[in-house]
Design a protein that fits this description.
Layout (H helix, E strand, L loop, with lengths): L1 H10 L1 H37 L1
């Protein structure tokens, strides 16, 4: 199992690197969406409170 993963990394380093970069972009995008959602919730709560 470990040997199989190692050979896949040796055969396709570009694909693994691209997947890692895409995972980082997806993580940043999810954080951005979460931040916008929290800002929207806070604004909605303040409008209801006022």
């Amino acid at each position: 199992m470990v040997y199989n993963l190692y050979t896949v990394k040796l055969e396709r380093p570009k694909v693994v690197r691209y997947e890692h970069k895409y995972e980082g972009l997806y993580h940043m995008f999810s954080l951005l969406v979460r931040g916008v959602y929290y800002v929207y919730v806070i604004i909605d709560a303040t409008i209801r409170f006022v």
